[in-house]
Amino acid sequence: MEQLTTAVQGAIALVARLLLAAIFVLSAVANKIPQFQATAAYMASEGVPNPKFALFGAIGLLLLGGLCVVLGAWTRIGAAFLLVFLLAATYYFHDFWTVADAGQRQLQTIQFMKNMAISGGLLSLIAFGGGPWSIDGWIASKREEAESGAGAKPRVTAKPAERG
User: Fold this and answer.
1) Which band of pLDDT confidence, cut at 50, 70 and 90, is reported for residue 163?
2) What is the span of the domain harbouring residue 44?
3) Is residue 145 part of a domain?
4) Is residue 150 part of a domain?
5) In Å, how far are 9, 53, 100, 118, 124 from 59, measured between CA atoms?
6) 118 within 8 A of 23, measured Cβ to Cβ
7) Model pLDDT for residues 118-143, shown as the tens digit of each residue
8) Which of 24, 37, 44, 69 has a Cα at 20 to 30 A from 145?
9) How big is the CA angle at 53 (ends 52 and 56), to the nearest 5 degrees?
10) By the 8 A CB rule, do 92 and 48 touch?
């Protein structure tokens, strides 16, 4: 029964990681990289300091963080990268508290809350890791096996008097 539980948890954690990472990786690959100049100009109009440098950093966070989360390798670090990006993007681009138009304020409030919900998912990854179906999970299981001695061949050592 424990193996079934682990398999179900692994599958759910994998799907969750893929769903969380998709928005970030696609944002970099389909938007920010091919439209670098336009994105940097938009960032400048929103008050982002040194927008081209910030965009290079954002793309790095998106790609490295997204890849780590998808693979489940250094999952916590990757999720932290994505969280840093998301919090900065939310502050600069979804600052509903500065919008005068009621319709735009509502739209930005929704975007802000969506980003906060995604932040919650990333915080879960930081807290609990990538799950059993991740590279991190595989490494942890191998470490547990090694520490418990499971599958290890017993070592034969000579007694002190028998050593030559």
Assistant:
1) very low
2) 2-137
3) no
4) no
5) 31, 10, 31, 18, 23
6) yes
7) 999 999 999 999 999 999 999 999 99
8) 69
9) 90
10) yes
pLDDT digits (tens, 9 = 90+) for 63-114: 999 999 999 999 999 999 999 999 999 999 999 999 999 999 999 999 999 9
pLDDT at 45 exceeding the cut of 50: yes
Terminal CA-to-CA distance of the chain, rounded, Å?
51
Cβ–Cβ under 8 Å, residues 128 and 16:
no
**Is residue 122 classed as helix, strand or coil in its secondary structure?**
helix
The DSSP line for 90-115 is HHHH--GGG--SHHHHHHHHHHHHHH
The verdict on residue 99 lying in a domain is yes
Are 28 and 66 a contacting pair, CB within 8 Å? Answer: yes
Q: Is residue 154 part of a domain?
A: no
How many domains, the chain? 1
Distance CA 147, CA 140 (A): 10
Can you give the pTM of this predicted structure? 0.85
